[in-house]
Amino acid sequence: MPSVKKRVKQWASRGADRHVRLAVTGLSRAGKTAFITSLINQLTHLGTEPNLPLMQLVQQGRGLGARREPHPHMHLPAFDYDTAMQALHSTPPVWPSPTRDVSEVRLAVRYRPQSAALRAINDMATLYVDIIDYPGEWLLDLPLLSQTYSQWSAKQSGLLTGRRGELAGRWATKAAALDPFAPADEKKLADIAEDYTAFLHQCKAHGGLHWVQPGRFVLPGELAGAPVVQFFPWVGTENEQDLAKAGKESNYGVLKARYDYYCEHVVAHFYREHFAKIDRQIILVDTLQPLNAGPAAFHDMRLAVEQLMQSFKYGKSGLLKRLFSPRIDKVLFAATKADHVTPEQHPNMVSLLQQIVHQAWQQAAFEGIEMRCQSVAAIEATTPGYVSVKGSNRSALKGNLVDNSPVTLYPGDVPAQLPADDFWQDQGFDFPSFRPQPAPLDAPLPHIRMDKALDYLLGDKFR
Predict the structure, then answer these.
(1) Taking a C-beta distance cutoff of 8 angstroms, is the pair 28, 426 a contact?
(2) Contact present, 109 and 43 (Cβ < 8 Å)
(3) How many CA atoms lie less than 13 Å away from 427 in the CB half-sphere?
(4) How many angstroms separate the CA atoms of 414 and 408, rounded?
(5) What is the DSSP string of 143-179?
(6) Nearest to 284 by CA among 96, 28, 106
(7) For residues 396 and 53, what is the distance between their CA atoms, to the nearest angstrom?
(8) CB count, 10 Å around CB of 250?
(9) To which H or E segment does residue 372 belong?
(10) CA proximity to 196, closest of 166, 162, 223, 170
(11) Share of the chain above pLDDT 70, in %
(12) DSSP string computed for 233-290
């Protein structure tokens, strides 16, 4: 039987190990898969040739190494890091396929404790990092939990203007002709729901619009084809009092029942199962693509980000606090694709993002949650340099476009403030998409400020 002293030492050694759950999310095309791939890649090179000069753990020479551990939850898919790296090391390199469902990966990061007391017990400690990957679109559904089907329908109907209204024509025309009191026609409801889902996809793909509800419809995961994702907003002219008389087996009654089931068994379940257990959160925001797409797309992106922030209101009056008691104490907003603009534009990216999340930032500060905004390129795809314009040097980027054609260009200025509508008339720019640079198999991926992001999110855990 081990001595009391030895048991105390073993207990203290285990206590020195830490565990943190880091959630990574972002709206489509924000670079979530690339970010997680780079995060794993940077930490697994910690003990050999770290490329993290701004991370205090590296500055102090205390990082010993990291490795992937067995998948923590067998009911969830594992994040496919190996396939992502194969894509980046292919010829020519390509971006990893985006994930479309929840996935997880666990890292064990070995380091030397900073505390002399802990070093006296054991000169090595381990931080277990569970990285949870989930689509940002799923967070857009949180407001549904405080809205009835009738209220949600009215709100969605009010948004059918401009480009969104044009795209809604097919499903909205069919839905408006539906008799709410007639016995439910399952085939017709499924047909209109399919058109509504196609409308949401068109909003994202062709309209540059990010605000889509229900968010799970565009990234259904295992729910694809299930009745729970076969409803749509009611756009008929009937008043709420009359609709309340519709029976449970009517068209309106079935749509309402599916909406209610979706809220309870999909939205609420997701928050209980995943969100309530998260310690740290990073939200990736692509501000460049909406700037390219024009004022409607940019303002819609702002609306979507504001709705994402509903998930981080933890005060006593917050819906999330009442339902799920989350424990997140740090949130990082990252303006992604910093390598798609020249370096002197990076402060403008941060300033613009700060203004987009300003209201949520104030709320988080009031509730004692630490927040930060920064620009980042998880996998740097360009090389900064200069071009000569009329005898003077000007900042430029050099890289390969997605069609693999080489280009050297100045993509344009990023506004430091929320742009007015006339900004798009006076400002000429184009933020193109680049192909990843070729990278050596045995070296960490090139990046911009991943070390700063990791230090903020995890640095205090390496004590």
Answers:
(1) no
(2) yes
(3) 19
(4) 18
(5) GGGGS-HHHHHHHHHHT--HHHHHHTHHHHHHHHT--
(6) 28
(7) 25
(8) 18
(9) strand 370-375
(10) 170
(11) 90
(12) ----S--HHHHTT--TTBHHHHHHHHHHHHIIIIIHHHHHHTGGG-SEEEEEE--HHH
How many CB atoms sit inside 10 A of residue 24's CB? 24
Which residues have CB under 8 Å from 61's CB, separation 6+?
A: none
Sequence-distant (≥ 6) Cβ neighbours of residue 387 within 8 angstroms:
393, 394, 396, 408, 409, 410
Residue 83 pLDDT class (50, 70, 90 cuts)? very high
Determine contact, residues 120/11, Cβ cutoff 8 Å: no
Q: CA-to-CA distance for 274 and 281, rounded, in angstroms?
A: 12
CA gap 144, 213 in Å, rounded: 9
Q: List the beta strands (DSSP E) in 294-367.
A: 330-335
pLDDT at 92 over 50: yes
Specify the pTM.
0.87
- Other beta carbons within 10 angstroms of residue 79's beta carbon come to 24
Higher pLDDT, 343 or 367: 343
**Two tokens at 206?**
């062709």
In the DSSP assignment, the letter for residue 90 is S
Are 171 and 232 spatial neighbours (Cβ–Cβ below 8 Å)? yes
Mean of the per-residue pLDDT values of the chain:
86
Buried-state track 201-219, b at ≥16 Cβ within 10 A, e below 16: ebbbeebbbbbbbbbbbbb
Task: Return all residues near 82 (Cβ < 8 A) that are at least 6 apart.
Answer: none
Q: Residue 231: which of 209, 269, 202, 262 has the closest Cα? A: 262
First-to-last C-alpha distance (Å) of the chain: 32
pLDDT at 18: 83
